[in-house]
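Run log, item B.
One chain of 105 residues. Sequence copied directly from the ordering sheet:
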Amino acid sequence: MDEKYSRMAMAKLQQEIAELKVKAQKAEQKGMINEFAVYERKMIMAQAYLLDPQDFKSGQKYDFKDDPQEFFDIEYMNGVFAWGYRSGSKELEGVPISILGERKN
């Protein structure tokens, strides 16, 4: 059984991310889009555990790393997940903190 990211040491998480990156690149080269997407999501989750959730505050807005035009308004935090609303959406959703970028003023 795989070890949970929440129980891994920082060095082990970094090693896991490096291994997932290699697997994702191989899947992409082989045209295995679904497999690539799985590895990419696993990397995002592992990266979230390298961050400090206390750096993200309720009531604040953050850019998305992949789309700085959109923002995420944090309602509350639960572990490495920020729960809130995406750019004017009325639907509550949870996102790993690793996809959030700079705080908006």
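Observations after the first pass:
- The beta strands are 61-64, 67-78, 81-86, 93-96, 100-104.
- The chain is about 35% helix and 30% strand.
Flagged for discussion on Thursday.
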